[in-house]
Amino acid sequence: MLVALTAHDKPGALDVRLTNREAHLAYIEATGVVDQAGPILDDAGQMCGSIIILDVDSMTDAKAWAEGDPYAKAGLFESVTLQAWKRVIGG
Questions:
Q1: Which pTM does this prediction carry?
Q2: Could you say which of 18, 23, 48, 73 has the lowest number of CB atoms within 10 Å?
Q3: CATH class of segment(s) 2-85
Q4: What DSSP string runs through 30-41?
């Protein structure tokens, strides 16, 4: 199943994001369940969140992936939502 993860960073947390970015990208590569991903940008073009499409067997797997993300472990996010998603265009 496809699951859309939408995460919004805590205000002023760009340094936390940048410090943990390499570990986050390595986690994406190692887990092999990320279909698409990219940062959300603020009006100044700075990263302030993430949108990630996970291809997993269950919502439980999506939650486990989200909890294991180095960004989450570093306390970067103010909020995270997981929602079943259906691709209509692309891919």
A1: 0.93
A2: 18
A3: alpha beta
A4: HH--EEEEEEEE
